[in-house]
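Possible regression after last week's pipeline update?

I re-ran a chain I had predicted before the update to compare outputs. Posting the input and the new output here so someone can diff against the archived version. Not blocking, just want to make sure nothing changed silently.
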Amino acid sequence: MAESKEYMTLPEENGSINIAEEVIAAIAVGAVREVEGVSGMMTTLGGSVSDLVTNRKNAQKSIRGVKIDMTGAALTLDLFLTVQYGHPIPEVAKNAQTAVSSSVEAMTGCAVEAVNIHVGGVTLN
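New output (post-update):
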């Protein structure tokens, strides 16, 4: 049985553009990896990203630690991450919000309404 995928649809003059949820999640993860102080991603359920591979039910709720709400004309993204010890959490979260929002908007053309950062842990390395 094929999985049903969620798409963001952008109507254009000559047709429409459909962008898969996985693509938006990949853009968000790529952007947040570049933020100084971010040490990793987590699932929405508090596990590590590797848990998503072994449990497909969790994978439907969160893609690589990114939850996407595509209702309406704008996107709302929730990112679940860990921060390196010694980096100010509010500063890292703000930088992550800015990086994700600008990357997703630039690469997809979709408006980003909000980027919610959920810090689930601090790593010592």
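Follow-up from reviewer: compared with the archived run. The radius of gyration is 15 Å. Marking as no regression found.
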